[in-house]
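Q: For a teaching handout, I want to show students what a protein-ligand complex looks like in token form. Below are the inputs, and the small molecule is iron/sulfur cluster. Please produce the holo structure.
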Amino acid sequence: MGSMTRDCSRLKFVFAFFFFPMRSLLGRIGLHYDISGIANAYYRRAFDRIPAADKAVILPHCLIGEKCKAHFSKEDGVLCVNCKQCRCGEIRILCREMGWQFYISPSQNFTKRLVQRKRIRAAIGAACEAEIEKGIRSTPITFRGVRLQERKVIPQAILTDRCDCLNNDVDWERLRRMIGNETGGAAAGRLPDLPLPQGDEA
Ligand code: SF4
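A: Here is the structure, written as tokens, with iron/sulfur cluster included.
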């Protein structure tokens, strides 16, 4: 039963990425699906097995307050001081309680370098649809995680409210629940029946 569920989730995962380039076409015929929700569900068990110290929440700088009091570090990104102008500070505190790492990153390239430097093995990341799409096109995605340069990271993703580099927002309660062990994302929609592409088992 467990392996059948695992197979279904793997199939959904493969379909979701296989059909991703065609999703606007599929949307026009009423087939919608939430790619981050499908990927989150697929990776969650593996994510939960990673030790707390090797996990991180990495938030984009578009979520910080307009008059953010943080300094920027080349090594660690935006250093939140919990001035309470945005909710990044409370997430930082929650991560500390959980024994996870926490970062606010200014860019996707910075995030990739951060993952190497901090030896992160699993990460919850917030990003807009455009950034997720860019990531899917430019990053090798495998059954065992997302390859960011030299490292393979098990991801959990949450969408920001808008594609906007200033004053963006995210569903903070959902993010808290994801840190507290719940898959992010809505249930997957129905996908048409097509042959499977070859998956990366590495
Ligand atoms: S809570 Fe942290 S990230 Fe948010 S505005 Fe204040 S210092 Fe900046």
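A: Two things your students might notice: The beta strands are 55-60, 71-73, 77-79, 101-105, 122-127, 141-142, 145-148, 151-159. Residues 16 and 168 are 26 Å apart (CA to CA).
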